[in-house]
Amino acid sequence: MTHQPTLVGFEEVFHAPLNEPHQDLLQFPQIDTDALRCHGKQYGRAGELLVESVLLSVGVQSVGVAEHLPFDCVVFLSQGVLRVQVKTATRPRANCFNFNISHGYHRSPGGVRRYAENDYDLLALVCLSENVVKFTADRRRSQTIGVEEVEKLRRRPGASFEAALSEVGVDQMASAPTGPMPFLLLRGGAEYD
After folding, report:
1. Each residue's pLDDT tens digit in the chain (193 positions)?
2. DSSP for 101-165?
């Protein structure tokens, strides 16, 4: 058995005791609001990965993008590339998963802002405690998914994706273009480069 020595100065990192504060996350979704707030980025990332998992399970390739962009992943279709913004709700309140479709943070210099019309093409709403995703082209700033919709989303994970593609006018049966894969032209704007 080989032994890989650690770099000088990293000994403490590799022998640090396990962080106990994360034990509260093992109880998800029954965790308190402070834990949700503290680990918000982590739950957002979990939502992004769930979206990629659902897309892959229905045969659609996607890839996550850099954090500073107004969309979270790109989806590769035979006709081109779509940009998807992911919003994650960790658990329902009053029998609904609630989503605020904006970006930024209240305490950041830029504050909370609306998305521009051409920031993304589709929205993926993640109900994390139920492990389901609803895709939509609806751009309303406030959206909800009722708990009664969850079972339908679970039974056919790709159905809302098909419906969202139809809403933006993407024909899934169209022949693939020749040459480099373009960004899709949506909402009457210029082609995205």
Report:
1. 566 666 776 666 666 555 555 667 777 777 888 877 888 888 999 999 999 999 999 999 999 999 889 999 999 998 889 999 999 999 999 999 999 998 877 777 778 889 999 999 999 999 999 999 999 999 999 999 999 999 999 999 999 999 999 999 987 655 555 556 556 655 554 454 4
2. --BS-TTSTT-SBPPPTTS-SEEEEEEGGGTEEEEE----SEEEEEGGGHHHHHH-TTHHHHHHH
Residues whose CB falls within 8 Å of the CB of residue 89, separated by 6 or more in sequence, listed in order: 97, 98, 99, 125, 126, 127, 128, 145
pTM of the model: 0.78
Q: Which helix (H) or strand (E) holds 75?
A: strand 73-77
The ranges assigned to domains in the chain are 20-104+112-167
Please state, in angstroms and rounded to a whole number, the distance separating the CA atoms of residues 20 and 124. Answer: 33
CATH number of this structure's domain 20-104+112-167: 3.40.1350.10
105: its two tokens = 């943070």
